[in-house]
Specification:
Elements lengths: L4 H20 L12 H24 L3 H7 L2 H28 L1 H24 L7 H30 L4 H5 L9 H24 L1 H9 L4 H31 L11 H28 L3 H23 L8 H24 L4
């Protein structure tokens, strides 16, 4: 397929915009401390994983119910089951942001997702490729990514030690309760692993996309049908957990507090940015053509990593740290960016 320069440019621009939205969507959590974590996360999930997927699927797939009935049962089950499993990763990420901050949580989750998001689907769905040039490149990119994660983890531990006395002041109005750095890292690692599971589910649910195209829908519309099943399934454990916490903590009443318009607005913005990231990248990838996985996905992740760390720096998450600690973080970022480039290049070797 030949792609014009203008179409390619718009695709690349949309991929970068999607990455920026992914990197900064959690930024409003820094200013939502009047609410409990569960108040914020419940609305965020309703917007990004229920309302937006429903809207995009109904709006772009004219015969949605016929498509789902025509799709193989195993694809439907894979989308719902692995989407449900990913939902627990979303809970971990939401808790991890409150513990280690926006820059560190996004860096760890995006890096793990990028590294294992290529390795795990290949090892489970096409293990023979691991012994081919593409598999060698994926393994190399994964190992480089792990090295970058270690550098950033070390920087985060040093940051925690240097900011221990001023931890509460630096948290500001961050929603959620304070946790130890080690707990936050474990939560982010779990979130990153389950983000890779989401990619496996999307791969296994491709027959749904094919069913949509047989009914005359575009590939973008077909992918929206998959996201509808996966994201709404992932929303279930999140909403149940939030409901449990609101009942336990008596935080249902927070929704009717006076002067909460700003809180609602920031939380809805979170949902729109994260959901917009998913669907904007789905719109961008076909415009890049055959190079979508090789150019679009690495660009999105690189933009997300940079945006998250710039946002974290601007809101003071790395204040009071030594220059040596910041250099470790920058080194880790550089290594992970190299891993993303290697993983993107591996897709051209298929």
């Amino acid at each position: 397929m030949i792609v014009s320069a203008s179409t390619l440019g718009s695709g690349v621009g949309c991929a970068v915009a999607a990455g920026i939205m992914c990197g900064i969507f959690a930024l409003p959590m820094k200013y939502l401390g009047r609410w409990q974590w569960e108040n914020v996360w419940a609305i965020f999930m309703l917007i990004s994983c229920v309302l937006m997927p429903l809207g995009f699927a109904w709006g772009t797939v004219p015969q949605l119910l016929h498509v789902l009935r025509a799709a193989p049962v195993h694809a439907i089950v894979a989308a719902c089951t692995l989407g449900f499993a990913w939902g627990f990763g979303a809970i971990m990420f939401g808790q991890g942001v409150s513990a280690v901050g926006i820059s560190m949580s996004n860096t760890l989750v995006l890096a793990i997702s990028a590294s294992l998001g290529s390795f795990l689907p290949m090892s489970l769905l096409a293990p023979e490729r691991l012994h081919q040039p593409q598999g060698h490149a994926v393994i190399a990119g994964t190992l480089v990514g792990i090295a970058g994660i270690v550098c950033c983890g070390y920087a985060g531990a040093q940051r925690e030690r240097s900011q221990e006395r001023d931890a509460e002041a630096l948290r500001g109005a961050m929603v959620g309760k304070a946790r130890s750095f080690s707990t936050g890292v474990l939560l982010c690692v779990g979130a990153g692993l389950l983000s890779a599971v989401l990619n496996i589910g999307y791969s296994m649910a491709q027959p749904i996309l094919h069913a949509a195209t047989r009914f005359g829908s575009s590939s973008f519309a077909g992918s929206n049908a998959i996201w509808l099943l996966m994201l709404t399934s992932g929303a279930v454990p999140n909403l149940v957990f939030c409901g449990y916490l609101m009942t336990k903590n008596g935080s249902w009443s927070n929704y009717v507090q006076p002067q909460t318009g700003r809180l609602y607005g920031l939380t809805i913005l979170m949902g729109l940015m994260w959901g917009g990231d998913i669907f904007l990248y789905g719109f961008a990838s076909p415009k890049i053509g055959r190079l979508g996985p090789a150019i679009g996905w690495p660009l999105k992740l690189i933009a997300g990593l940079i945006a998250a760390n710039v946002a974290g720096y601007l809101i003071g998450e790395w204040k009071l740290t030594r220059a040596k600690t910041r250099r470790w973080m920058v080194a880790g970022l550089a290594v992970m960016l190299a891993a993303i480039v290697v993983l993107g290049w591996s897709s051209t070797l298929a």
